[in-house]
């Protein structure tokens, strides 16, 4: 089942206008929270500044030789406009390969924290047997440092750990007949929100629908954030104390459960920093 917002406009013909605006992929959730997770492309591409260029067969061996690593995009990291926004903040202009892949063993849950960007983000959850079409980003060291900083990985008070999800626990098929040995993903340190059965709830993709449901379910949440998605986003945006209070309220309302991926924290192929919380000399950015 595709993510509700994975579909942008139809790809333009080769040689046509490949700007994000022309492709209908230019909305930035960091600037307009109700757009979260942003529009995802229909197919693999190479994000090069404001362009999303066609990408043929994944050049996996070449990327690995260049030191790039595969990162599973669960939420807005699969939005080219959001990625461009994050990279531009630190002057990173190197292209980002985005490979649409068949992923088995992971689903898209709801992070158990309120983002200072004004939305409630997505987070991966263990889902044996589940199959999703998701994007894998092949990031170089500078790009990875930017995404790590935005997710709060280097910070003790950050919201996410970067973990390595190995095959065969998680099967990632990039569409060229191969299977990756694993991929990184960002797992929420607060856990994820649960559904009525106690299992992790699935992120609906549409932020307005999600926030409406959450506000409907808690009078205390409405007291903090208002009664509409617009009020929620406006109050949460850049208000650290309010977002922290909302995050604690999720736990107090007993809405939180484990993602099932916590056991991978601290693991990684030849990368002792994966999942680490030590201060970093790399970029620092507002946490989502």
Give an overview in words:
- With 288 residues, the chain is an alpha+beta fold.
- 23% of the residues lie in helices and 23% in strands.
- It has helices at residues 60-65, 80-89, 141-151, 207-216, 219-225, 229-236, 240-252; strands at 45-48, 51-54, 69-73, 96-110, 122-139, 160-166, 171-173, 182-188, 192-193, 256-257.
- Strands 1, 2, 3, 4, 5 and 7 form a 6-stranded antiparallel beta sheet that branches.
- Strand 1 (45-48) and strand 2 (51-54) form a beta hairpin.
- Helix 5 packs antiparallel against helix 7.
- It is globular and about 50 Å long.
- Mean pLDDT is 89; it is low at 1-10 and 271-282.
Q: Averaged pLDDT, please? A: 89
User: What is the overall silhouette?
Assistant: globular
CA(first)-CA(last) distance: 26 Å
Query: What does the radius of gyration come to?
Result: 18 Å
The major sheet is characterized as: 6 strands, antiparallel
Number of strands: 10
Structural class: alpha+beta
| Total of DSSP H or I helical runs spanning 4+ residues | 7
Order of helices and strands: EEHEHEEHEEEEHHHHE
Strand content bin: 15-25%
Q: How much helical structure, as a percent, in the residues?
A: 10-25%
Assembly type of the shown chains?
A: single chain
Provide the low-confidence segments as ranges. 1-10, 271-282
């Amino acid at each position: 089942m595709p993510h509700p917002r994975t579909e942008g406009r139809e790809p333009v013909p080769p040689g046509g206008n490949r700007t994000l605006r022309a492709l209908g992929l230019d909305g930035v959730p960091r600037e307009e929270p109700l757009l979260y997770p942003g529009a995802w492309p229909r197919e693999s591409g190479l994000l090069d500044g404001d362009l999303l260029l066609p990408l043929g067969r994944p050049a996996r061996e070449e990327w690995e030789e260049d030191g790039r690593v595969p990162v599973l995009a669960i939420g807005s990291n699969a939005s080219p406009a959001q990625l461009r926004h994050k990279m531009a903040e630190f002057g990173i202009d190197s292209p980002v390969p985005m490979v649409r892949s068949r992923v088995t063993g992971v689903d898209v849950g709801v992070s158990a924290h309120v983002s200072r960007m004004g939305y409630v983000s997505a987070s991966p959850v263990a889902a044996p047997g589940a199959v999703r079409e998701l994007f894998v980003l092949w990031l170089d060291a500078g790009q990875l440092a930017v995404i790590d900083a935005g997710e709060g990985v280097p910070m003790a008070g950050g919201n996410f750990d970067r973990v390595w999800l190995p095959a065969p626990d998680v099967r990632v098929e990039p569409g060229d007949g191969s299977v990756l040995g694993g991929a990184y993903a960002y797992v929420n340190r607060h856990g994820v929100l649960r559904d009525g059965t106690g299992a992790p709830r699935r992120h609906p993709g549409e932020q307005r629908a999600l926030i409406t449901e959450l506000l409907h379910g808690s009078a205390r949440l409405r007291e903090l954030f208002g009664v509409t998605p617009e009020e929620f986003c406006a109050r949460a945006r850049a208000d650290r104390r309010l977002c922290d209070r909302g995050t604690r309220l999720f736990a107090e309302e007993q809405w939180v459960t484990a993602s099932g991926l916590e056991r991978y924290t601290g693991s990684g192929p030849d990368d002792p920093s994966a999942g680490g919380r030590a201060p970093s000399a790399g970029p620092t950015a507002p946490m989502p």
